[in-house]
Predict the structure.
Amino acid sequence: MNAAAPEVAEEVVLYEKVGAHIAVVTLNRPKARNAINPEVAQALHRLREQIESDDEIRVAILAGSGGDVFCAGADLKAVTAGRAGASGISTEGGGFAGFVKARRAKPWIAAVRGKAFGGGFELALACDLVVAGKSTQFALPEAKIGVLAAGGGAFRIAQALPRALANEILVTGKPISADFALGHGLVNRVVDDAGVLEEALRLAGEIAQNAPLSVKASLEMVRAASELNEEGLWKFNDAWGQRIIRTEDAKEGPRAFLEKRAPQWTGR
């Protein structure tokens, strides 16, 4: 990796640009199990906004440092100290970790190795794709400590799984394996632990080869599918279709195909 200098103080979150079009964002509190404290939330919020505004970046990867824990969720010391609000482990517009509520135009891939518990699972659920290591475990154990998976976990797991399975995960708080997650569509790939980031980068590279506006439109359609009825979806679909067909990339794609060369996307 050709890494750019970290963008945040104290390096609680690291930023790397890989090639021209891929960003890697890494939670970097391994001694604290990469738990989300106010500093991490603010840093992740800033980096998310930076990536959204950078026209060169087409795909982002969210990873965790260390090998045992992707993210243990909220830093309970911060929560018990009363730092869980908008000025604490949540941000205005971003929600928990500065991430789970944010509307993002670019695809994010969660590269999950080790435990993704509570808010860590919620971060993965908020991403668009997930690559997991074989030893990875996911859990929403909030009921065990008397709280709610309110960072999107409770409703996103219900959107992703049949009701009975979602209920069991939420009300027992027991972890599920990477293979279970793969078998039920919660993750895209399960690979050896050591190859998680490499596989996420490979997947990101495939996405980055495609037209940025087409990728954006496709993500928006998938997100809308759970929010709109069929009439609303057709209107949304047709609006995006008309927008895309007028772009320079829509002309470049067929032209490059006929000329048997790689397309040169401009995002316009």
About this structure: Residues 1-9 have pLDDT under 50 and may be disordered. The radius of gyration is 19 Å. The chain is about 40% helix and 15% strand.
